[in-house]
Specification:
This protein has nine helices and 27 strands. The chain is of the alpha/beta class and 435 residues long. The two termini are 38 Å apart. Adenosine monophosphate binds next to helix 4.
Length: 435
């Protein structure tokens, strides 16, 4: 039996960052950029207005106020998307819309609210002039050419995670595609003679296969592409046949068939078709976890496909997925933050640790007066999938302890928090006002 850390290190040592692929920018969301992006243009491309108002020379507004407006002659109007035709000479102004290029001569924009345009309109006054109601500084409400991005600048660096804002930056540069690390294809295979697919009636003695769906959903959630291989039966032959269908995947994930029972065959398949890297991890739930590789021949060369054999119990398979499959998928995607964000919380129940394994207890996390609290979701049996469905986090009870008492501080992995939140700052900060 090896520790959780040793097991994770082993799993990660068998997976590599995948190759880049070029695709439409919207399809790149959540993936890691595999090229440096330099800007071919200035953004904005021209000096332009940040407000609807009047483009003026700042000097012409000197001394202007609501009680003593300065009148300027309106020599034109520019909408966003058109180019100015008039110059702003001393004593004149051009009506301008947000995003429209600043006319020559102008160096500031007075927003409509600081002019008498509304009162002129309502009193059917002379609109060939405009009253400026305040003094403005040079540059007010002007967005300068290249102030966001200058031509030639390195805008997005290789390795950057593409979020909606980066997708928008790519679009503003006129990029329709980008090169990113491709998503891993992960084959999913549930095993067990008792399993029935969800679209079939349930005969006596059988259960619906839920692991395929939790595992496939987790693969999606962490950025992989699940390939469901149907249900394998409890024989080496059935399992081998099914696994053969998934050998072009980047990783294989099975569930069930790894514990000490008579029908535990994932290990046999690993031993026969590849090699076992480890079996059994010092954790609860999830002890009978198997990991190894299946050998295959691809273009005349031997290749190894990593296989993670999750335990069949639905909670065990989810907890082990979180600890090992999730980081493996993130590594293949080229991501650097592999750790689930963790917080420190005050546990509200006693949890006994009777056999020196690391317990991952399903907890509901609440925050009260600046402190996090974690209480058990209820019965913690590894077949009780609702204990996961009700959980916000996994509270870690170390293997070195005989348990924790209500009021003790525990570390909690937050199941729905993104790995992109820095784990270190989270662990130290949330326990505000600790006494
Ligand atoms: P095993 O690891 O194959 O010994 O299975 C342990 C427990 O998990 C048994 O009660 C199985 O019926 C259950 N189990 C195994 N595979 C699945 C699955 N795909 N969906 C739901 N329960 C499962
Ligand atoms: Mg089984």
């Amino acid at each position: 039996m090896i520790s959780v850390e040793e097991a994770l290190e082993k799993v990660l040592s068998y997976v590599e960052v995948l190759e880049p692929e070029e695709k439409p920018i919207l399809d790149c969301l959540g993936q890691v950029l595999a090229e440096d992006i330099y800007s071919p243009i200035d953004i904005p491309p021209l000096d332009n207005s940040a407000m609807d108002g009047y483009a003026v020379r700042d000097g012409d507004t000197r001394g202007a106020s609501r009680s003593s407006p300065k009148d300027l002659i309106v020599v034109g109007e520019i909408a966003a998307g058109s180019l100015p035709t008039e110059e702003v000479k001393p004593g004149t102004a051009v009506r301008i819309m947000t995003g429209a290029p600043l006319p020559e001569g102008a160096d500031a924009v007075v927003q409509f609210e600081d002019t008498d345009e509304v009162s002129r309109k309502s009193s059917r006054g002379n609109l060939s002039q405009i009253g400026i109601l305040c003094q403005v500084e040079k540059g007010l409400n002007v967005r300068y050419r290249g102030e966001d991005i200058a031509k030639g600048e390195l805008v997005l660096e290789n390795g950057k995670l593409l979020r909606p804002s980066e997708i928008g930056v790519l679009a503003s540069l006129g990029r329709s595609t980008a090169t990113v690390i491709r998503r891993p294809i992960v084959a999913v295979l549930a095993t067990g003679d008792e399993l029935v697919n969800i679209d079939q009636p349930l005969p006596p003695g059988k259960i619906h296969d839920s692991n395929t769906y939790t595992v496939a959903a987790e693969i999606f959630r962490y950025g992989g592409i699940p390939r469901i291989l149907d249900i394998g039966r409890d024989s080496v032959l059935s399992l081998t046949e099914k696994l053969d269908e998934g050998l072009d995947a980047d990783m294989l994930i099975t569930s069930g068939g790894v514990s000490l029972g008579d029908y535990d065959i994932v290990k046999d398949v690993l031993a026969k078709r590849g090699e076992i890297a480890f079996w059994t991890v010092c954790m609860k739930p999830g002890k009978p976890l198997a990991f190894g590789v299946i050998n295959k021949i691809e273009q005349g060369r031997e290749k190894k496909v990593p296989l993670l054999g999750l335990p069949g119990n639905p909670v065990s398979s989810m907890v082990t997925f979180e600890q090992f499959a999730r980081p493996a998928i993130l590594k293949m995607l080229g991501k650097e933050n592999l750790a689930k964000p963790a917080i420190q919380a005050i546990i509200e129940d006693d949890v006994r640790n009777t056999d020196g394994r690391r317990i991952f207890a399903r907890v509901i996390v609440t925050e009260r007066e600046g402190k996090y609290y974690a209480r058990l979701t209820g019965p913690q049996g590894s077949g009780i999938l609702t204990s996961m469905a009700n959980a916000d986090g996994l509270a870690i009870i170390p293997e070195s302890t005989t348990g924790v008492k209500a009021g003790d501080i525990v570390q909690v992995q937050m199941l729905d928090w993104s790995e992109e939140m820095s784990a270190t700052s989270l662990i130290s900060s949330p326990l505000k006002g600790e006494d």
